[in-house]
Amino acid sequence: MASAIPEQRPVSIGEALRGLRHEAATYKGILSWIATVDHKRIGVMYGITAFIFFLIGGLEAMVIRIQLAQPNQSVVDPQQYNQIFTMHGTTMIFLVVMPMSAAFFNLMVPLMIGARDVAFPRLNAFSYWVFLLGALFLNFGWITGDIPDSGWFGYAPLSVQSLGHGMDFWMLGLQILGISSMAGGFNFIVTILNMRAPGMSLFRMPVFIWMTLVTSFLIILAMPVITIALFELGFDRFFAANFFNPENGGDPLLWQHLFWLFGHPEVYILILPAMGIVSEILPTFARKPLFGYPFVVFSGILIGFIGWGVWAHHMFTTGLGAPANAAFGVSTMIIAVPTGVKIFNWLGTLWGGSIHLATPLLFAVGMVAMFIIGGLSGVTHAVVPSDFQQQDTYYVVAHFHYVLFGGAIFGLFSGIYYWFSKFTGRMLSEGIGKVHFWLMLAGFNLTFFPHHMLGLLGMPRRIYSYPEGMGWDVYNMISTVGAFVIAASMLVFMFNFIRSIKRGRRASADPWDGRTLEWTIPSPPPPYNFATIPVVHARDEAWHRKYVEDDQGRIVRVPAGAEHDVESHEAAGAEGHHIHMPLPSIFPLIAAIGLPMIAFGLTYYQDTHGEWALPLIPAGVVVLLIGIFGWGLEPEAE
Amino acid sequence: MQHVTPAEHGMETSTGLDNRKLLMWLFLASECLFFGSLVATYLLYKGRSTTPPFPHDTTIAGVEYSGIYDIPFTSVSSFVLLMSSLTMVLALAALQRDNRRAAQVWILATALLGITFLAGQAFEFTEFYHEGLTVSSSVFGSTFFVLTGFHGTHVAVGVLILLSLFVMGLRGRLTSERSLNLELAGLYWHFVDVVWIVIFTFVYLIQ
Ligand SMILES: [Cu+2]
Question: Is A429 a catalytic residue?
């Protein structure tokens, strides 16, 4: 039989993989996106996916607001209401703010530190695919009807006892998403520490890069804690373990400790990237350097540390005792100090600047203003007796929407308006952008400001309906109207975005007179970003290439053609052909596919007639290993 | 010509530390939090079980229960794992001297010691199971199996990495210039050993 096969030179695995990679480099269209390892493309995919989930999470919020618009409504039943607020919270945190921040890390970090890509381009692709598949897995219940229903915080023992597969999708989905976040965290720390352009010392890094670094450290240290908590929850759910089962010596409070030990650093994971974005935008549009750069950086680092010592402020009413409550109350007040420092630095940056009131600045200022309100109500939660009163009321809902929507989402939108042109080569419409901003600001405050009053009037969170005559009717109606205004502002934004991609005004490389390295390269940047790796001489390098001080100390433009100006633009086209970029690869995607396979197997195999699911577990492990080994064996770059 | 991955093409990184090595250190930092959370859970629940078997000799309401731990046995398997750290060091030293044959021998020895440890753990788990300790029997069962099982999985992954390196060596692809691969595996392996010392101390020895 063997003789029938014509003699052929045996092809080694290495050669086969090399051939595959070179072929992947020729992919066009959708395939080129699937195999891409380019940080800019991965960033775009992150951003689009996160925005789609923003719309889904927003729809969930609309259902909540419609249901609560008036007393005694029954648009959804109590169980559906539980499912919808659980998915709304989980989606907005894990599928919107975190990946949208990851989109900015991907898009901006290499450009702002003068690198051609991240340290591990394939790991970066892996992060994205794992995120996408984890997000789809988490939402799979919409098809089967098993929708998570125990809140985004998944408090035990409710999350253990929740029937159906809803909380399995939640728990395993978050595990998968955690892998994605941690892979990204490792990647960006190594990229920032190791791939900076010559001359860019740590204290010449843009503040956004600093905040990315702090966030990434928080991610790699906080995600393990929730991973273990979810692991324990999984054992309780699948194998009747006793971690959170008081009958056998377990303790549901352990869940809260582990969850919030992750959960409080998590709120800084959500807000620090937005703070970094705002810290880039304010100096550009005030036309002066960031006021007190070292203070902003050190307060960011300090937040990263103190953020680990405040978690029990989520648990004041669980009976920890007065000493613990007092200690955590004080530490929570202390963490407000570095946050306040940042706010004063932002105000100091605007103070006396020659302000250019463009859309990115509007959103950035909106972020600062809304974040101040959210920060202040946060401080009231640090006061234990006051928190006893507000626990589980709409006052808390008001607080965290002011920091997460008013803070993070406004900050992320300011980043979109600021950097849109860098990746599309076109400007978003300023006029429509301003309509979007004012609508969103008005809608946001209409929706969430009344929540303060509702909370103080005693309206509890997570109730699906309420009776008449509680004094809550008006505020709820205003809030619902506000939600529709926010929805309208999103339509305006999407119109602006799509229209500007096609017909927006052409953007120059540096339309805002920017201060950081990304503005020294063309829009959109070539795949290799920098034709020549820049040499950095100062903080705000791009600005110093454009301006000098004359003898009277006035700031004047460097005459065209003078020394610094040329450096980055020279020979972009010609030299670009000789730059070797990492080859595309499909193995990150293959490895990522293994994870949801394992998760599906675990979810279903114990069901009656669930035998079909058992082989999925080993099969998923094999797929994961194939991905990892293929990845390890294929040639690094050309 | 310039490349994107400077470290792997002889270009300096900003810190001077190789990208992959930095990645491994960061990974181990987050591993500390993984194991830390599990060990904390174990310690928090220590002595809270109401159903036998118990880890150490216990008297409840006048009834004596003998502890389930077999300290001499676990001491031996701990010793085996510690020895594997020694062979790991020898493997790396041999490879860096470009003594590839010796490196291969020590890599295989490390993997075999790891497998021996895993076999010991499998034996221990079965024994405990027959004495009635399961993940669901008590909070001790839950914390014990999940913590030591999590560690055992790490050892198993380490063995897989070592065997992959051994196969690489057979194909002549594990050379002194590529000793970083073995060095990274070594960092991981030593870390997993150190974690075991912590587990052995806090879980088995301290009553
Ligand atoms: Cu908190």
Answer: no
pLDDT value at A327 more than 80: yes
Quote the ipTM score. Answer: 0.93
**A window 532-571, beta carbon within 8 A of B:** 533
- Distance CA(A177)–CA(A390), nearest Å, equals 32
pLDDT at B177: 87
Tell me if residue A224 falls in helix, strand or coil: helix
Residues around the ion ligand 1 (C-beta < 5 A):
A 264
* pLDDT at site A5: 52
Cβ–Cβ gap B30/A231 under 8 Å:
no
Distance CA A562, CA A568 (A): 13
Smallest Cβ–Cβ distance between A243 and the set B29, B50, B142 belongs to B142
Kindly report, residue by residue over A375-413, the tens digit of the pLDDT.
Answer: 999 999 999 999 999 999 999 999 999 999 999 999 999
Q: Does A634 touch chain B (CB under 8 A)?
A: no
Q: Does A238 touch chain B (CB under 8 A)?
A: no
Q: Rounded to the nearest whole angstrom, what is the distance from the C-alpha of residue A311 to the centroid of ligand 1? A: 5
Q: Is A117 a catalytic residue?
A: yes
C-alpha–C-alpha distance, residues A483 and A440, integer Å? 9
Q: A533, A111 in Cβ contact below 8 A?
A: no
> What pLDDT sits at residue B9?
42
Residue of A nearest to B26 (CA): A186
- Taking only the tens place, the pLDDT of each residue in A506-554 is 999 999 999 999 999 999 999 999 999 999 999 999 998 888 877 777 7
Interval B72-119: pLDDT, tens:
999 999 999 999 999 999 999 999 999 999 999 999 999 999 999 999
Q: Do B6 and A195 touch (CB under 8 A)?
A: yes
For residues A344 and A575, the model is more confident at A344
Of A194, A227, A249, the CB nearest to B15: A194
Question: Does the pLDDT of residue A562 top 70, yes or no?
Answer: no
Nearest to residue A635, comparing CAs of A8, A3, A12, A159? A12
As given in the structure block, the two tokens for residue B39 are: 């060990």
Structure tokens at A355: 């302000």
The fold of A31-585 is: Cytochrome C Oxidase; Chain A (1.20.210)
Instruction: Give me ligand 1 centre to Cα A314, in Å.
Output: 6
Q: Is the confidence at residue A22, as pLDDT, over 80?
A: no
CATH H-level, domain B15-205: superfamily: Cytochrome c oxidase, subunit III, four-helix bundle (1.20.120.80)
Task: Note if the pTM is more than 0.80.
Answer: yes
pLDDT (tens digit, 9 = 90+) per residue, A265-288? 999 999 999 999 999 999 999 999
Residues of chain B short of pLDDT 70, as ranges, are 1-11
Question: Does A266 contact B at CB distance below 8 Å?
Answer: no
A186–chain B Cβ distance below 8 A for any pair? yes
Helix (H) / strand (E) element for A111: namely helix A98-113
What is the model's pLDDT at position A572?
Answer: 43
The minimum CA-CA distance between B146 and chain A, rounded to whole Å, is 8
Catalytic residue of the set A18, A461, A544, A564: A461
A residues 21..80 contacting B (CB < 8 A): none
Residue A425 clears pLDDT 60, i.e. is over it: yes
Please identify which residue in the block is written with the tokens 């395939």: A31
Catalytic entry in A152, A255, A418, A604: A152
What is the Å distance from ligand 1's center to A115 Cα? 35
Domain ranges for chain A: 31-585
Q: Which long-range contacts (CB under 8 A, 24 or more apart) does B201-206 make?
A: B202/B39, B202/B42, B202/B43, B203/B39, B203/B42, B203/B55, B203/B144, B203/B147, B203/B148, B204/B55, B204/B69, B204/B71, B204/B74, B205/B71
The catalytic residue among A204, A313, A426, A546 is: A313
